[in-house]
What we know:
Layout: H1 3-25, E1 29-32, E2 36-40, E3 49-54, E4 58-65, E5 68-72, E6 78-82, E7 86-87, E8 91-94, E9 98-102, E10 111-116, E11 120-127, E12 130-134, E13 140-144, E14 148-150
Antiparallel strand pairs: 1-4, 1-7, 2-3, 4-5, 5-6, 8-11, 8-14, 9-10, 11-12, 12-13
Amino acid sequence: MSRLHSFPRFFLSLALGLAAAFGVQAREMVSVQRAEVNLRAGAGTQHEALWVLSRGYPLEVTGRKGQWLKVRDFENDTGWIFRPLVGKKPHHVVKGSMVNLRSGPSTRSRIVGKATRGEVLRTLERRSQWVKVQQDGGPRGWVARRLLWGW
C-alpha cells in the first residue's frame, strides 16, 4: 500500500485515540434542581435514603440504571438519584473550611464575602484557576478553583 493511502488512516487512528483519551477524562456533572431530594442506597424508591440534598448540589455521574443515576459527591460519598430530579445548571460546593469570595480573579482582589465547607454556590463564570460564583441570596465573587468541587 502506498504512503498516500495510509496517511488518512494514521490521522483517523490518532483522532480516535485522542477522543478516547479525552472521553476518559470528561466528567458528566448534574445538579439537584428541586428544593430537597433523597440520595438513595440503590436505584429505586424502595432503597434507603442516605442523604437529603438541597437545590444546586453538584454531583458526578458514575453510572446509570434506567431512570436512575449513580452519583458521587465532593466527599466521595456515592448513591443513586432519580434522573428527573437533576439538571445541568452548573454549581460548585466549597471544599475548604472557609473560603474568600473576591471582587476579581486574584488573591490581591478585595474580599466581598466568605463561604464555608459544604456550601453550594451557583457557577457564573470560569477563568483558568478561578470561578465566579454567587451565594444563594448573597454576594457574587471569585474563588480559587482548587477550593471548590463541581463544574
